Predict the structure of Cyclic nucleotide-binding protein.
Amino acid sequence: METIPRVQHDTDLLRTITKPIDDIDKLIRCLAPKCNQMLMDGRRNIGIVKENQHQCLVLFRGTMSLYRNNDGLIINSETSPFIFGMNSQLRYSRHIYLRTQETSSIGLISINEAHKIIAEQQLWENVSRLLEYSSAKVYAHCFKVSKLSCYEIIVHQLIELNNEPEAIKNKITAANYILSRTFLSRSGVMRTLAKLKQLGAIQLHRGVLVTMNQLPPSLKLSE
C-alpha cells in the first residue's frame, strides 16, 4: 500500500493572497479609453507584441491563463478584472503566452502609453499592489507544484478548480485541469481521483468535477 502524507493546509499560500480589486478597477478605468478593445473566443492565443512594441493586456471580462511555451504548463490563471504585462514577465514572449479560457473581452495598450497614463494620473501605488499580487500568485503556484506531495498538489488543484467560474469548471475534466498545471503523471492523477470518487469526497460526471465534499487529510492507494 502507498501512503500519501497528510495535507499541510498551513502551506497553502493562496489563502493569504488577496486580489487588489479596487486598485485593478481604478487602473482599468484610466487605461480603457486608450485600449484597442476586442472580443475573443475561448481557447485563443493572444499576441502581446504589436509593431515590435510590448503591450499590456486588460481583461475586462472572462478568464485567461499564462502558459509556458516549452511544456504547455499553466503558470497562472486570472478571472476579470485583471491586467497582464505590467511587469517584465510578458516581455519574454518566446517563452510564455496568453490564452483565453472562455469568451473574453480584452483590450491592448502599449506599455509606453500605459506608463504615461500611470505617471500622469499618479497611479504607481495601484500598480505596485497589482505587481505584488501577481508575484505572489506565481510564487505560490511554483511552491505548490514543487514542495508538496503528489496528493497535496492534487488537493490544492481540486480546490482551485472548484472555485473556477462555471464556464471553465464545466468544460474541462478534473484530470486535464490538474495535468495542465503540474508535472504529475496521468496515471497517478487518475488513480487519486478514482479513489476520492470511491470515498465520496468528490463527484465526477464524465470526468468533470460536479461537487467536492470534505477531502481526506491523507490517502492510501493500492499498488
Summary: The chain is about 35% helix and 25% strand. Residues 23 and 125 are 9 Å apart (CA to CA).
